[in-house]
Fold:
Amino acid sequence: MAVRLLKRWIVGNPLETKHMVHERLPKWKALAVFSSDALSSVAYATQEILIPLSLFSVAAMSWSIPIALCITALLIAVSTSYWQTIRSYPNGGGAYLVVMDNLGVRPALVTAAALLIDYVLTVSVSVAAGVEAITSAVPVLYEHRLTLGCIAIGIVTMINLRGVRESGTVFALPTYLFIFSFVLLIGVGLFKLLTGSLQPQATLVGTAYPALPVFLILRAFASGCAALTGIEAISNGVPAFRKPESKNAQITLLWMALILSAFFLGITALSHYLLIHPSETETVISLLARQILGDGALYYLVQLSTALILLLAANTSFADFPRVCSLLAKDRFLPRQLSSLGDRLVFSNGIFLLGLVSALLLIVFQGTTHYLIPLYAIGVFLSFTMSQSGMVKHHWKLREPGWKVSLALNALGGVTTAVVLLVIAVTKFSHGAWVVIVLIPLLSLWFRGTREHYRKVAAQLVITDRVDLLKPLKHVVVLPISGIHRGVVDAVQYARSIATDIRVVHVELEEESTARVKHSWDKLNSGLELTILKSPYRSVVQPILEYIRKVDGESGDDLLTVVIPEFVTARWWQTLFHNQTALIIRTALLFQRGKVVTSVRYHLSR
Amino acid sequence: MAVRLLKRWIVGNPLETKHMVHERLPKWKALAVFSSDALSSVAYATQEILIPLSLFSVAAMSWSIPIALCITALLIAVSTSYWQTIRSYPNGGGAYLVVMDNLGVRPALVTAAALLIDYVLTVSVSVAAGVEAITSAVPVLYEHRLTLGCIAIGIVTMINLRGVRESGTVFALPTYLFIFSFVLLIGVGLFKLLTGSLQPQATLVGTAYPALPVFLILRAFASGCAALTGIEAISNGVPAFRKPESKNAQITLLWMALILSAFFLGITALSHYLLIHPSETETVISLLARQILGDGALYYLVQLSTALILLLAANTSFADFPRVCSLLAKDRFLPRQLSSLGDRLVFSNGIFLLGLVSALLLIVFQGTTHYLIPLYAIGVFLSFTMSQSGMVKHHWKLREPGWKVSLALNALGGVTTAVVLLVIAVTKFSHGAWVVIVLIPLLSLWFRGTREHYRKVAAQLVITDRVDLLKPLKHVVVLPISGIHRGVVDAVQYARSIATDIRVVHVELEEESTARVKHSWDKLNSGLELTILKSPYRSVVQPILEYIRKVDGESGDDLLTVVIPEFVTARWWQTLFHNQTALIIRTALLFQRGKVVTSVRYHLSR
Structure:
């Protein structure tokens, strides 16, 4: 009862199935809903490029400019590919569906594994980065960042368990606040640079673009690819757009790609010209905003809006992860509990699972974005590659008008992302990427094992032959008693109501008390004989089990019911004061065929 | 199965009740069995006197001599009291029994609480001190002392779960080894001192016996009183002696008191003359033995025999604690599980509990004797005082020949120990004694609450009126099904065998699948109607519970059985892949009267 009240208080009252509605979003709302994940990566992408370079030398950081340009080119290629996907899959082209549709089950499961890992990491990375945005502005919170991160995940989980309904409008505010504050940051920064009113606080030592190991440049590039995460969101959500859905979705995708490119290049360029050096306790964005906007209200606006959009990005995974889980569970690749809509019309089990796993990940990686990033991009780029390959197959199969151009664009996107995937896997392998590389095949194998289990169960449960439901069963009841009390009376009456062949047994632990039990039993005049079982080893359960085996052997193929008189204490913890004989007998008989264990309960009132 | 094999391997095969035997001990064996606890306290008592004094000044440590003399006087008083107890209670005069017999239930429960706490602390303190004896000799083990302590408790627990049978002989070796090595240590020490071949390594600064705060002297005295722990053991164990039991026990008590006094005074005197200064990483005994015997084999013999007798002392609690628990449990002051003899004819639950609690205590107090000592003596001296008070009452009631002298001796013992108890409580209160002072009354209240619970249960279970076991019951069966499969066939056949009024119900989650279920059901030709229950909130369990309530309301005071078709997966973890509907229904109905829940299981083979 208390548990139920607590649940109601946290997640709200249950909602009826008929209340399920689907909101149709105008483009400006859709941009807010679907782009938070992609745009928010601006908060950490530049920093991730600078960190490996800065470890080499300050001058090496100038390489961030060409690297950022490469990533922007990659962004254009990937966006173009998804532009195609939107047209071909107007009902929503999530990578799992596209791959399943075109490449079959095994590649689809690999994609699904990559997607699930990606969603979990989106939560962990976004929350870690969001907390870092806050602790950059309020350094006293730095040592509490892990606690803050876990609280944030807890809140987002709770909100999602309640069900997020007013999504469009609620999402618009933080997204447009973020866009506004970053336009301001980059605009003011460029203006001050051009008018010469802003100078780098450090001076560059050595020449720009010094010779670097190629591996280091590739590693910085791989880290920066985190900027592309979330770009596929619009193509998954096409049905949520107003009509014409595909066209509106494509226009929104274009806008998102433009804003993302502008922000990413702007931040990287400003960081370069102001010679920002990554610090452990303060983010690059914070260092930049402090220099450009000073230490006033505008600086705090940038930090706050960054934290908010990152939380929003984490929140989108709470819609996507349970949705993909439920798709997999409906196909029996995951336990079926993940496919059931909860009280509030959301996939509660999936939401709960995501909250738990992402919080654990956050704790393992000490709430630090930089430690999580190497794991992040693998899943994302694997699903990009699989999805584009699926699209290539799609165009090849259907050969709709203009299919050759479409195929070429998707092939280009697929090959590019595959190459990037390889670069990330190699350069980040020892930094943690290996975990994901090992996990993806294991997960996809597990999906198949799960389906196989369900298949076996179904095969065993199907009724193949003619069955006779009217077939009478011969029925023996074994009724163990420890003494003569109220509960025994109920149990005997019940046994009489379900069968005629009743064996009442008592296990002798002390001769004296057994004599008393026998005497009281005879006084009850039940007409039933009491069998006394010896117990040389003082166990209550073993002699009963042996007796059951014996009776079962005698009566052949009939059914045997063990009726156990059990009293239920008034409060649950009082159970600890009593022997758990019923529970032990039930457990012992759990795996034996043809035994039914029935507890007849006598309820104590105090 | 695996669990059972593991248990067999650890604790051995079960023993039959008839194998229970009682060994009768000659005096020399009895001394070994019953005195390990008392004698082993020599290992830490002197050190505990020196620590508070040494914190004041080196010269202050000379006060250890008069303090040790006082404690020896106390020892004589307490031994004399127990000498009386042995004569009056030849069947074993444990403090709990003596107090229950003479002073009634409440004082007896306070005594029992003190005793149980004392036994737990005996284990923790002895193991901590034993490990310190080892780490003094082998300093590299110092940082692993907590692990070593836990391993030691684990081993002793395991040995006791197996049952210690050959106790007398096994105990003799380490006890006499200890006596031998300490006679050697003290003898050689005194000889070398008298012949002048041994000199203090430090020189005394300041005058001996400087003025000290009285509180400090009392605190040092209170700490040293740990020397008296275990002195009551012989009076508990009188029936184990050979005839004449009382006389033999008294002689053994005399010997034990003599040896203990000699060792304690000897060690304290030597420590004083050699100006031993307590160290954190090495015990006083170890420092002493190193100076007197050098760094050779004899030194290691002293350390090893000290560790062994301390382990033996811990072991005695594993006999006493479960015994007192079982006495309390038989009187229903503790959960009855503590009164049952296990497989190996020992009170397994009590042994397990003691191992667990003492290990936890060891961990909380970082495996350090000095931190544990302030908690130790309270329980011991409280039980001394209660026991002596009981003896005073005993003499007053019976007035046997010479009762006046006996009463006076016991009264003297009781008053002395009461005064010491007060001194310990005051001087050690803030060092941890408060925990025990709070815990003892709480525990004794809990004992009474437990008995009250059992009394209430018994009152509710007693059959007061005439009952009619032949009274026929009207019987309704509710049978919920999720689909039509093999398990349903078994459940329907079972339901038919126990009742005629059977209501088969199905909860509709999706209209489509419900139609399929209905169609398959009709094809089965069971002659039973299938009721479809709507579920607006997509819960499977709620509509079933509501239906049960409705049927129960209609059918009046008759019994309702819910028969649930359940399949049992081939491996236990596969259960996680399936909905736990049966479990949820069972739990929901647990506290409702007149509902019987029966699972009819269908076993999957793979």
In short: The radius of gyration of chain B is 33 Å. Chain B touches chain A through 73 residues (CB under 8 Å). The longest helix of chain B spans residues 297-330. Chain B has a mean pLDDT of 87.
